[in-house]
Specification:
- There is one protein chain.
- With 101 residues, this protein is of the alpha+beta class.
- The protein contains two helices and six strands; from the N terminus they run αββββββα.
- It has helices at residues 7-16, 91-98; strands spanning 21-26, 29-32, 37-39, 44-52, 62-69, 75-80.
- The longest helix is centred in the first third of the chain and has 10 residues, at 7-16.
């Protein structure tokens, strides 16, 4: 698996290889505001995960997910803070995001 020094570098490289959509968590689904795509946990796969841990600042802790819809039609990324800054998500979404590709 590839590793990256920064979140920005990971996102740029993933975009180069086709992960062009920008997903955000909406409690029980992933949502792309640009074209109003919604994916529930059973509708996508996590193909790669990159974790970034801040050495001194907890706000630097982040995870980058490479996401592909089950039908292969949509590819994008999701960035999510973890620890005390984590987003509010459903139990099903927590299970899905905890999965290791």
């Amino acid at each position: 698996m590839q590793s990256y020094e920064t979140v920005t570098e990971a996102l740029a490289k993933l975009k180069e290889i086709g992960y062009t959509l920008d997903f955000n968590i909406r409690f029980d689904q992933l949502h792309c505001a640009e074209n109003n795509i919604c994916l529930h946990p059973e509708a996508f796969e996590i193909t790669e995960i990159f974790r970034f841990e801040g050495d001194t600042n907890p706000s630097d802790e982040d995870i980058v997910y490479a996401i592909t819809s089950i039908d292969g039609k949509w590819k994008g990324t999701l960035t999510s803070a973890y620890g005390m800054y984590a987003d509010s998500v459903s139990t099903e979404m927590i299970r899905k995001l905890s999965h290791q590709p």
